[in-house]
Amino acid sequence: MRLLLIEDSRRLQDSIGRGLRKSGYALDVTGDGSEGLWFAESNSYDTIILDLMLPGLDGLTILRRLRQKGNNAPVLILTAKDTVDDRVRGLGLGADDYLIKPFAFEELLARIQALCRRHYERPTALLAVEDLEIDTAARTVRRAGKTVDLTPREFMLLEYLAARRGQVISRSEIEAHIYCDSVDLASNVVDSAICSLRRKICPDGDRPLIHTRRGMGYILESNPP
After folding, report:
1. What is the pTM of this model?
2. How big is the chain by its Cα radius of gyration, in Å?
3. Which CATH number fits domain 126-220: 3.40.640.10, 2.60.40.10, 3.40.50.1980, 1.10.10.10?
4. What is the pLDDT of residue 127?
């Protein structure tokens, strides 16, 4: 999943960014409001984490412009304790949630996970395809009752495929949502990641669940398309 963090505090940029990347998220970060709006309009994000007090453009202006242009990416507002009016205005402008500073990273992560589930119209944290079970809250995977050990990035890739189960997802979509722009997209990083994921969730001749549509992309489904 790809996130955008618009926050001018370098300390929060570093701490939030380190935690989210360790959790497997692809993340773009900026501390400038004008640049943040450009990022949000130029890319597809699964959640935007938005501070209100920013240089360039303030957070409420960014939110208003995004919603006016039909950008429905989930937005989580970061606010101070004494900004009740701003929180109310933010929710009125189309923000999906807010978090009061200071906050625990675990709560931020849980709220992001909830917004991503809502974005893909998933009512619960559990995703299931045949005997494959993915718990996006506990961040665990089981196949036929056996635990599957995945890296954070592999887990994020599997979650993205499962969230769009039954849909063909192009290589470029996977690159945009799972990997940062710093990745050399001319490489076979996506193909290698898919290959590794297949080996882990389909060992010992288990029924394949990730299928390739040649020239189009990949699909997670019970039966091959």
Report:
1. 0.79
2. 18
3. 1.10.10.10
4. 86
